Amino acid sequence: MGIATVNPATGETLKTFEALTHEELEAKLALADSAFKQYRQSAIAQRSQMMARVAQILENKQVEFAKVMTLEMGKTIKSAIAEVQKCALVCRYYADNAAQFLADVPGSTDASSSYVRYQPLGIILAVMPWNFPFWQVFRFAAPALMAGNVGILKHASNVPQCALAIEEVFTEAGFPPGVFQTLLVGADRVEAIINDDRVKAATLTGSEPAGMSLAAAAGKQIKKTVLELGGSDPFIVLESADLEAAVTTAVTARMLNNGQSCIAAKRFIVANAIADEFEERLLSKYQALKVGDPMSEDTDIGPLATQRILQDIDRQVKEAIAQGGNVLIGGQPLSERTGNFYPPTIIANLSPDTSMAKEEFFGPVALLFRVANIDEAIAVANNTTFGLGASGWTNDDRERDRLIDELEAGAVFINSMVKSDPRLPFGGIKRSGYGRELGKEGIQEFVNIKTVWIK
Ligand code: NAP
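Above: inputs. Below: predicted complex with NAP.
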């Protein structure tokens, strides 16, 4: 499949795009390179003004942009509008805080003056996924551009109109030509772009194979990378938890983005004493969810983004059933509809060693595990190669402290679902990747941390 808009709700190909020719790509890299030489000299206050304008444009056109996302990858229109609003938030956050994050930091030494200065690196390549087609890009671009870098975006091939719309936002906000550009290219062109001397670093949000391939190419060139990869987040509910709050949040945390989020709760690990009650309440909330047209305001779950994802979740669920899983609801694609629709599904009685429990899966499917105590809960939660987020539900302080301390994840949320917030760093450990986006840590990934010593 080339670069195209295919409506996931109907399967209809709406628009196809030609990939950039070699010459067109070269012209864009040359423009980015010359833009950087000027842009790195700009005052942070001036960058802040432009970034605040980006936020304003996003807010003004939130419905228009949301519709492009929903059309290209099927997220519900209400969640798409919320995504555009969150992008405005991250732009304002860095517009307001970048000067402070990037200010010189004095060091106390025997020099007459010594300090750390943060300087931009140059052209940063961002390889991004389709699942949050605006948010993933803005959470890279806002800090990278505020730090004085220039960005080039290779977006997922199924969201080209989102990619082009984002470039336009930066242009309209007044960023000089070349400071942010979209490159319509396939994944097969990424290595050549990394190999280009003008490109200084890269970030990828996506699957493990894509991350490995990008990091290997960058490694050969000794270029810095940040990887935000997959996840199989646990959602642990212990006996002392507020059960109703936990179940309600469990539904939101699993169904986010039609079940296609790296930090969606995927494995629900529940203490035996409350497991029957949890299961019953979860089932009744699942029964109330409305699957349908993602453009409709009252839809809870739209189609999966591509046919491939539908095929993958269908295969994974069938394997889980064959390995002893008990389907409480759903379990089959909605074949009576065109489009990539899969129903809310719960699979109980699984062994933590089931293949589906170890892999990442995208789609509205919850796996339920029962555990005797917190020791077993933590062991099951950590029984994965991923380490992105984890949510733990308890009202016992000792249990809370153990969850925070012992869960192998880049983030632990207690009595709350895992989410990203511009004010806090976001990223994973283990095979979920390395490096951090957002917060102060995020803006410091793509800078030269220069030591200055004056005698
Ligand atoms: P994907 O297939 O890995 O694609 C992600 C991006 O990488 C796309 O732009 C894709 O381009 C490109 N790509 C694919 N193979 C590549 C290769 N060998 N070399 C260089 N680039 C390559 O992932 P996806 O299906 O779009 O996104 C879902 C994945 O993203 C899930 O694993 C999810 O957990 C992860 N994710 C992680 C986070 C996080 O913050 N940790 C957030 C969101 C999503 P093409 O589209 O042209 O193939």
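The chain has two domains: 3-229+432-454, 233-421.
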